[in-house]
Design brief:
alpha/beta; 22 helices; binds magnesium ion; binds thiamine diphosphate
């Protein structure tokens, strides 16, 4: 039977198991939306901005491991997805992004709503295509899903000229795919794994160092078995959080710029690092020449290009993290490292991650810790800035895929749409965006989407009146010159204002009124004793999003902090803080 390109695409999406598409229509893609209109198997979530559509598809994908799908129109629709594509690419998130394009005869003519999205996204996609032959459509879509989800996952974009969507052909979506030259290595080399096991057990001060790749590989269960069997402690990157429960004594926490004291000391003193699914990113390593100065490095990663790129690796293992760990598990035994365990225990005791109490305004660490108590099994998404670091450091993570955060690109505006995607994928879990008052405004319009989809996402705004993380750098390294970071500043303010006063705008915006304007729920919290009750009140909402506006200390800082370019051991510990 003859079918249009649009019909073939929808057939293919269904064969790939797609149940949800996040999108925004326009002239070039009406044919696809038209086929989807009365299709009972695929639900289209209409976001209010294409950037949110792609972040929502990303949150869907990160929280489930399935490939997220985004559908947008040509020109501005396509270019609006660019930040989300780059975000997903950096953090290895499997996405298929379908963009409309002008008809083939118009391409290159500066036609209405034409943009060369394939050219624009070439460096930020795992692969991308423009379909110029209707006969290649099915095969290309199949390839896109395969490439997005295998090996080191990533976003794949397909640009679809409108006449291709309308062109009819008697074809079906292919059942199989094979791509010459693309054969990701899954199984690690057995000899290397054996060598790694031996070296690991010979070390006196060994550490596992886990990145996001462990979650992507669904390797957390087997990793926990390896840790239990060996008794070797773990450190992680921001993306590795959740590999062990935060409260596990062998979890020494995140390392790097805002790593824990114990994590940063342990990585400095250790004699062996077993890296799993990590890029050894500079936010985690700090000054490379002083990173883990005494350590041999074993590194297991699915992407050979990540190995020995930033740090010299003694034992490389190319392979899927879960498979490598499954091979490793029978080869390891309890490590004999009592002095090392005592040492890390001492650091933890001397410098615990303690919450602060708060003075006139609320303490952000206390808020995050209370979120953890009221919602112990939540999926947390974050924006970027101090909010992101407090969320990473003070929530007690228990499960894999429970922290959705833009680690590589650091995209403000990611958290709320990602929470929408995660909530749709996980209707039985609580999804909470821990947000900053700056970042949340980058995709605040998605309140309309969450209201329309009846999603009880909670947005916990840690409202400090500042682009806080930038302000923290200005405070520490630019003599408190708060240039363009105060969100309440007016022209009449003194030029060198270093602290908020009576002249400030009171709310900018009033998040409670804003929530109400969208028919969402808005709650403002100003007193410590109201934190918990506000969260409990929010928990009662089952169909409406809730914004909780937590008025936190204006100038609270994230501690510890390694100054940019510094070595991890040279972290600043903060004012009067024990951590
Ligand atoms: C899209 C984007 N623009 C700029 C930045 C730089 N940046 C990093 S953190 C930050 C401040 C974020 O402010 P807010 O959301 O209020 O979070 P806070 O640090 O106050 O918790 C800025 C501007 C960024 N990460 N992303
Ligand atoms: Mg802020």
């Amino acid at each position: 039977m003859e079918k249009s390109g649009a019909q073939l695409i929808v057939e293919g999406l269904k064969k790939e198991g797609v149940k949800i598409i996040f999108g925004f229509p326009g002239g070039a893609v009406i044919p696809i939306f038209d086929v989807l209109f009365d299709d009972p198997d695929i639900h289209v979530v209409l976001t209010r901005h294409e950037q949110a559509a792609i972040h929502a598809a990303d949150g869907y994908a990160r929280s489930t491991g399935e490939t997220g799908v985004c559908l947008v129109t040509s020109g501005p629709g396509a270019t609006n997805t660019v930040t989300g594509i780059a975000t997903a690419n950096f953090d290895s998130v499997p996405l298929v992004c379908l963009t409309g394009q002008v008809t083939r005869d118009m391409i290159g003519n500066d036609a209405f709503q034409e943009a060369d999205i394939v050219g624009i996204t070439r460096p930020i996609t795992k692969n991308n295509y423009i379909i110029t032959d209707r006969a290649l459509l099915g095969r290309t879509l199949k390839e896109a899903f395969y490439i997005a989800s295998t090996g080191r996952p990533g976003p794949v974009l397909i640009d679809l000229p409108k006449d291709i969507l309308n062109a009819k052909l008697n074809d079906s979506y292919p059942e199989t795919v094979s791509i010459r030259g693309y054969n990701p290595v899954i199984k690690g080399h057995p000899g290397q794994i054996k060598k790694a096991a031996k070296t690991l057990l010979e070390a006196k001060k060994p550490l596992f160092y886990v990145g996001g790749g462990l979650h992507i590989a669904n390797g957390v269960d087997v990793f926990r078995k390896v840790v239990k069997k060996t008794g070797i402690p773990m450190i992680c990157s921001l993306m590795g959080i959740g590999a062990l429960p935060t409260a596990d004594p062998l979890n020494l926490g995140m390392i790097g710029m805002h790593g824990t004291y114990t994590g940063n000391m342990a990585v400095t003193e250790c004699d062996l690092i077993f890296g799993i699914g990590t890029r050894f990113d500079d936010r985690a390593t700090g000054k490379l020449s002083e990173f883990a100065p005494h350590a041999k490095i074993i590194h297991a990663d699915i992407d050979p290009a990540s190995i020995s790129r930033n740090v010299a690796v003694e034992i490389p293992i190319v392979g899927d993290a879960r498979q490598v760990l499954e091979e490793l598990l029978p080869l390891v035994k309890p490590a004999n490292i009592p002095e090392w365990i005592e040492q890390v225990g001492q650091w933890q005791k001397d410098h615990p991650m303690e919450v602060e109490v708060g003075n006139e305004r609320l303490s952000p660490s206390l808020i995050v810790r209370t979120i953890s108590e009221v919602f112990p099994d939540a999926i947390i998404s974050t924006e970027v800035g101090q909010n992101q670091m407090w969320a990473a450091l003070f929530y007690n993570y228990k499960h894999s895929r429970s922290l959705l955060t833009s680690g590589g690109l650091g995209t403000m505006g990611y958290g709320f749409p990602a929470a929408i995607g995660a909530q749709i994928a996980n209707p039985d879990r609580k999804v909470i965006d821990i947000a900053g008052d700056g970042s949340i405004q980058m995709n605040i319009q998605e309140l309309a989407t969450a209201v329309q989809e009846e999603l009880p996402v909670i947005i916990a705004v840690l409202n400090n009146g500042y682009l806080g993380m930038v302000r923290q750098w200005q405070e520490l390294f630019f003599n408190k010159r708060y240039s363009a970071t105060c969100l309440n500043r007016r022209p009449s303010c003194p030029p060198e204002c270093k602290h908020p006063g009576d002249n400030c705008l009171h709310y900018n915006p009033d998040f409670v009124k804003l929530a109400e304007a969208y028919d969402a729920v808005g709650i403002r919290v100003t007193k410590t004793e109201e934190i918990k009750t506000a969260l409990e009140q929010a928990a009662k909402e089952t169909k409406r999003p809730v914004i909780i506006d937590f008025l936190i200390e204006y100038e609270a800082n994230v501690w510890p902090m390694v100054p940019p370019g510094g070595a991890n051991k040279d972290m600043l510990l903060g004012e009067g803080s024990k951590s």
